[in-house]
Amino acid sequence: MPITADFTRTCRARSPSPPEGSRKTLPGVPDGETVLSERVLAERFGEVVLPHLGDALSLARWLTGNAADAEDVVQEACLKAHAGIAGYAGGNARAWLLAIVRNASYSWMARNRPRGVVAVGDLADLDDVALPPDSAANSPEAALIAKADTAAVEAAIARLPQPFRETLVLRDINGLSYREIATMLGVPQGTVMSRLARARGLLMSDLGRAA
Amino acid sequence: MNPTDDGLPEDRQDMKLMIHALVDGELDAAAALAVERRIAADPELAAEHARIVAAQAAVARLPRPQVSDAFMARIAAIGATGQQENLEAAAPQSRDASGRQARTRPTRTWPAARRFGSFDWRAMAASIALTAVLASGATQWLMVGNSTDSFAVAIASGHRRSLLAASPVDVVSSDRHTVKPWLDARIGVSPPAPDLTKDGFALLGGRIEVIGDKPMPALVYRHHEHLITLIAAPQQNGGASAPVATDLSAGGFSMVHWTDDAFSYWAISDTERPALDEFVDRFRAAITAG
C-alpha cells in the first residue's frame, strides 16, 4: 500500500499544475492581484478600447464602405472586445482592437450585404497575379497625386479591390506595421508588401487620371 | 543597371517593394541607407519614391471620422456595465451593473481622460456618475444573484471533479504552514488555513480551482468520510463582512457562502447541512481567534 500511495503522489507532483499554466498574467497587474476583478477588466477596457475608437471607425468605414454603418459595426466589435478583454495579453492595443473590428466588419457585411463580400478564393487569386508591369512611362507625376482632392482620394480607395483596400487602410490610415497587418490577415509579410504596393499603384494611377 | 553588392533585389518590382518599405519605415538603418543610395542614383526609382510619398500623404490627409460624444459614451457604457441589453435600452447608460462598479467608475475614468483629451470626457464621466446614483437596488440584487449562481455552479463542478480525481488536493499537508506558501507561490493568494483537527475537521491540503477564468485557492478538509472544499476568493471591494452564511446549495451538494474581511468564502460538501454549518462556525472562530 505505501508503494501505491507513493506512486500516486509522484505522478501528481510530476504533472504540471494546469491552473498555473492557464493563469492570465496581464501587464500592470501586481502579483498579489492575480485574480482579475471586474474592476480591473473595466479599467483595461477603458485603456485598450476607448483611445482607439477613431481608428476603429476608420477601418469599419473603409471595410463596409459606409460611414453610417461604421458605428454599428464598431459598437458590435466593442461588445466582443469587452467580452474578450481578459484575453488581451499586452502588445499593440490598437492592432488588437482593429482585428476585432475587422472580423465584426466582415460578419456585418456577410449579414447585410452578402454580395459585397469577397470570397476567399478570389483573394488567393489576386495574390497570384504578378505585380503589374513596370509602367513608369505612364505613371503620373508625384505632383499630380499630391494635388488630388479629398473626394478623389476617397473614391480611389473605395474602388480598390477589397484585400488591397484593407491593407492600404490598415497601413496608411490605421498606421499598423507590416508585421501587425500580416498577423491580423494571417498572410506572410511578403503578401502584405505586395498588396500594399498594388494598392498604392492603383491609387496612384487613379489619382493621376482624376487630376 | 550595374550589379551592385548592397544586398538589394535586382528585380525592379522587388526593388519597388523595398521603396514602399522605406517609406513605411520598415527598413533597418543599413537597408534604408542602401535603398536611399539606389534612389539617389536612379531617377526612375526616385520618381516612384516621390509618387509613393505623395500617395501616402494624400491618404493621410483624409478627414478622420469623428468620435461623437454620444458614441463615446455608448462604448464607455459597455466597459462600465458589459450588458448588451443596456445598450439597446432607450437611455443606454441609464443603468449600471452594480452600485459597486458604478461608484468606482468616475475615478477610474479620469486618468484616461487626460491622456486622450480630444473627447468630452468630463460630460461622459458626469453622466456615468449620475447613472451610478440612479442604478436601482433591484438591478444590483439581480446582478449579484446571477453572478453568485454561476459562481456556485462552477464551485460545485470543481468539487465534484475533485472527488473523481486521483487526489482531491494538489498539495497534501495537514500543516497550514505548508499549504499557505504553496498557494501563495502559485497564485499569490494565501487564505487562512486553520487546522481544525481537534474540532473534527482535518485539513487535508489545498488545490487551485479556476472559476470564471480566475485562479482561486481551495482548501480541502475532511469530516468523517466527507470532504469539504473551501474556496476563498479575495475580496475585491473590501466590503463589509456578511455575518450570516448564505445557503447556496447546488448540484446536490450543500453549499454555504459568507464573507469575512479579506476573503469571500464558499464551502461545499456532500455532508449534511448541520455538519457544514458547524464547520463554518469552527472555521470562522479559528480565524477570528488566530
Task: Outline the fold blueprint.
The complex is a heterodimer of chains A (211) and B (290).
Chain A: H1 2-14, H2 18-21, H3 38-48, H4 53-64, H5 67-83, H6 93-112, H7 120-128, H8 142-147, H9 150-159, H10 162-173, H11 178-185, H12 189-210
Helix pairs in contact in A: 4-5, 4-6, 4-10, 5-6, 9-12, 10-12, 11-12
Chain B: H1 12-23, H2 29-41, H3 43-60, H4 69-81, H5 84-88, H6 99-115, H7 121-134, H8 137-164, E1 171-172, H9 176-187, E2 202-211, E3 214-223, E4 226-234, E5 242-247, E6 254-259, E7 263-269, H10 273-289
Antiparallel strand pairs in B: 1-2, 2-3, 3-4, 4-7, 5-6, 6-7
Helix pairs in contact in B: 1-2, 1-3, 2-3, 4-7, 6-7
Which features characterize this protein?
A: 211 residues, mainly alpha, Arc Repressor Mutant, subunit A, 68% helix, 0% strand, elongated, disordered N terminus, B: 290 residues, Phosphorylase Kinase, domain 1, 17% strand
Structure, explained:
The complex is a heterodimer of chains A (211) and B (290). The longest helix of chain A is centred in the C-terminal third of the chain and has 22 residues. In chain A, α4 packs across α5. The N terminus of chain A is likely disordered. Chain A is an all-alpha fold and 211 residues long. Chain B contains ten helices and seven strands. In chain B, α6 runs antiparallel to α7. Chain B starts with 11 loop residues before the first helix and ends with a helix. About 13% of the residues of chain B have low confidence. At the A-B interface, α1, α2, α3, α4 and α5 of A face α1, α3, α4, α6 and β2 of B.
Tally of separate domains of chain A:
2
Enumerate the strands of the largest sheet of chain B in spatial order, edge to edge or round the barrel.
1-2-3-4-7-6-5
State the helicity of chain A in percent bands. 55-70%
What is the CA–CA distance across the termini of chain B? 86 Å
Count of the domains of chain B: 3
Strand content of chain B: 15-25%
Q: What is the CATH superfamily classification of the largest domain in chain B?
A: MucB/RseB, C-terminal domain
The helix tally of chain A amounts to 12
Here the CATH topology of the largest domain in chain B equals Phosphorylase Kinase, domain 1
* Major pleated sheet of chain B: 7 strands, antiparallel
Secondary structure class of chain A reads mainly alpha
CATH architecture label name of the largest domain in chain B:
2-Layer Sandwich
Shape of chain B: elongated
Number of helices of chain B: 10
Give the ordered list of helices and strands of chain B: HHHHHHHHEHEEEEEEH
Average pLDDT score of chain B: 75
Low-confidence stretches of chain A: 1-35
In total, the number of strands of chain A is 0
The level 1 CATH classification of the largest domain in chain A is: Mainly Alpha
Task: Give the largest interface.
Answer: A-B, 73 and 68 residues
